[in-house]
C-alpha cells in the first residue's frame, strides 16, 4: 500500500464518520429551532391568554418613543389615558394583527375607546399592551 492510498483511506473513513454525524446535526437543528423559535412563541401566547383584557379608556396624550432615527417600524407607540396609565400600541403576530400604526393614528386625544389588550403591571414594565380598538365611544 502506497502512502497516497493510505491517506485516501484515512480521508474516506473521516468522511464516513462525518456522514454519521449528519444525523446529530439534524437533531441539533431541531433542538435549536425549538429552543429559539417555538418556545418563545408558546410563552408569548400563554402570557397573552393569561393576561388579556378589554377596557374602556379616554385618551389624554399619545406620543412616539423613537428607538432608531433611521426607521419607524421599531418605534414605541404610547397612549396615555386620563388615569395616568400608559399603554403600548402593539402588533400581535400570532393573530396576524400587524396594524399598530393604523390603530395609533385612529386614537384621538380626548376621545373614549373600548380596546383589547394584554399584560400586567410589574417591576419590569409599568405599561400594558393594546392591540385592537373595538369601538370608539364619544
Shape: elongated
Number of helices: 2
- Strand percentage lies at 25-35%
Structural class per helix/strand content? alpha+beta
Q: Report the radius of gyration as a whole number of Å.
A: 26 Å
Mean pLDDT: 83
Strand order of the largest sheet: 1-2-3-5-4
Order of helices and strands: HEEEHEE
Measured distance between first and last alpha carbons: 93 Å
Report the biggest beta sheet as strand number plus sense, adding barrel if it closes. Answer: 5 strands, mixed, barrel
Low-confidence runs of at least 5 consecutive residues: none
Annotation, overall tally of beta strands: 5
Question: How much helix, percentage-wise, in residues?
Answer: 40-55%
Notes on the structure:
The chain is built from 2 helices and 5 strands; from the N terminus they run αβββαββ. It has 138 residues and is an alpha+beta fold. It has a 5-stranded mixed beta barrel with strand order 1-2-3-5-4. It starts with a helix and ends with a strand. The model has no long low-confidence stretch (mean pLDDT 83).
Structure keywords:
single chain; 138 residues; 2 helices; 5-stranded mixed barrel; alpha+beta; elongated; 5 strands
Which helices and strands occur, and which strands form pairs?
Layout: H1 3-51, E1 53-65, E2 76-81, E3 86-89, H2 100-106, E4 112-118, E5 128-137
Parallel strand pairs: 3-5
Antiparallel strand pairs: 1-2, 1-4, 2-3, 4-5
Amino acid at each position: 500500500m502506497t502512502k497516497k492510498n493510505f491517506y485516501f483511506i484515512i480521508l474516506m473513513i473521516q468522511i464516513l464518520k462525518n456522514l454519521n454525524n449528519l444525523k446529530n446535526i439534524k437533531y441539533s437543528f431541531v433542538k435549536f429551532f425549538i429552543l429559539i423559535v417555538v418556545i418563545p412563541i408558546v410563552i408569548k401566547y400563554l402570557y397573552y391568554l393569561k393576561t388579556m383584557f378589554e377596557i374602556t379608556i379616554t385618551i389624554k396624550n399619545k406620543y412616539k418613543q423613537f428607538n432608531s432615527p433611521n426607521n419607524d417600524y421599531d418605534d414605541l407607540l404610547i397612549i396615555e389615558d386620563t388615569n395616568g396609565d400608559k399603554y403600548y400600541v402593539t402588533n400581535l403576530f400570532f393573530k396576524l394583527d400587524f396594524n399598530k400604526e393604523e390603530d395609533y393614528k385612529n386614537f384621538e386625544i380626548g376621545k373614549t375607546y373600548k380596546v383589547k389588550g394584554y399584560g400586567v403591571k410589574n417591576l419590569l414594565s409599568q405599561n400594558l399592551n393594546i392591540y385592537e380598538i373595538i369601538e370608539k365611544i364619544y
